Amino acid sequence: MMKRLLSLLFILLLPTLCAASEIRIKDLVEFDGVRGNDLVGYGLVVGLNGTGDGIRNAPFTEEIMSNILERLGVNVTGEQFRPKNVAAVLVTATLPPFGRAGGQIDVSVAAIGDAKSLLGGTLIMTPLKAADGEIYAVAQGPIIAGGASVEADAASVVQGVPTSGNIPRGARIEREIDFELNSLRAIRLALRTPDFTTANKIERAINANFGGAIAAMQDAGTVAIDVGRSRARSPAHLISQIENITIEPEQRARVVVDQRSGTIVMGENVRISRVAVSQGNLTLKVEEAPMVVQPNPFARGETVVVPRSEASIMEEAGLKMAEVSDGSSLSEVVAGLNALGVGPRDMIDILKSINAAGALHAEFIVN
């Protein structure tokens, strides 16, 4: 049973690392210039059912509400606002590459005041700006929040995050990014995971496909393409041909563990040298059972709490000295670790110790 549990907790990334698995270049690189741009805006959500900002605790909500009403021709100078159905929010979105005016994009909304929930709210027209300070889109629409909140006089329950949500296709693009792809004379491919061997394979695969030296590896994370030598109709046509070429990428050996869930992820290239392992279980137990002592009836005195504690140390039968043979393949490494017959959290401690001893030949990452 224990071995079966360990086998389930070892998530083996074989499909992406096997020698027989080929990946498209478009899934390994980013093309120079073909990128999104982050947008952000500050807006107001209305229509909340008494779950909005408290104006005293969030004065910026009152300020933006006054500005909106004045732009609509409503004079609110000197008026006192105390509504509970509005909330100030930050709106974020990503302008996709080659996004055209009139197109629609998704937006995310998050409260920045003390609003309890955005359920049922509607975002009022909010300009979205990029890093250059220019407005590229305008967002508006009903919010889809992914949580729920219930509150009573003596108790409250919150499920999910009701103070954030999204609006599918909630922003309309008003300005386009100035970028002329067809004017490029060279295209650079940026590897998402820089690796010299993978970059070299991309260079050779592209040159073999076009029958000429149009690609050149510049470093572990960059491969440059000469558009002129490719004789393609345009850079766009060239990219469409390159992105579907497949290669077998290389990747560093890694072991990733999550101590909270007890999950262990191992790559195919992980190797362990021959080691001996011994592991014991030590349990510390402390119990508190305070006793209340009261004075005799009609006697002078007061009630006191007398502490009563019990502490003990128990050592359970642990793992005796066991040998883990060196593994030449991932299956042999997993079989050797499973042969120890310990739980997943003990296995994480054993892997840490093996790594400290220099017998784990992989990058060890702990989350």
Automatic annotation (TrEMBL):
<comment type="subunit">
    <text>The basal body constitutes a major portion of the flagellar organelle and consists of four rings (L,P,S, and M) mounted on a central rod.</text>
</comment>
<keyword id="KW-0282">Flagellum</keyword>
<comment type="similarity">
    <text>Belongs to the FlgI family.</text>
</comment>
<keyword id="KW-0969">Cilium</keyword>
<protein>
    <recommendedName>
        <fullName>Flagellar P-ring protein</fullName>
    </recommendedName>
</protein>
<dbReference type="GO" id="GO:0071973">
    <property type="term" value="P:bacterial-type flagellum-dependent cell motility"/>
</dbReference>
<dbReference type="InterPro" id="IPR001782">
    <property type="entry name" value="Flag_FlgI"/>
</dbReference>
<keyword id="KW-0966">Cell projection</keyword>
<dbReference type="GO" id="GO:0009428">
    <property type="term" value="C:bacterial-type flagellum basal body, distal rod, P ring"/>
</dbReference>
<feature type="signal peptide">
    <location>
        <begin position="1"/>
        <end position="20"/>
    </location>
</feature>
<dbReference type="GO" id="GO:0005198">
    <property type="term" value="F:structural molecule activity"/>
</dbReference>
<keyword id="KW-0975">Bacterial flagellum</keyword>
<dbReference type="GO" id="GO:0030288">
    <property type="term" value="C:outer membrane-bounded periplasmic space"/>
</dbReference>
<comment type="function">
    <text>Assembles around the rod to form the L-ring and probably protects the motor/basal body from shearing forces during rotation.</text>
</comment>
<keyword id="KW-0732">Signal</keyword>
<dbReference type="Pfam" id="PF02119">
    <property type="entry name" value="FlgI"/>
</dbReference>
<keyword id="KW-0574">Periplasm</keyword>
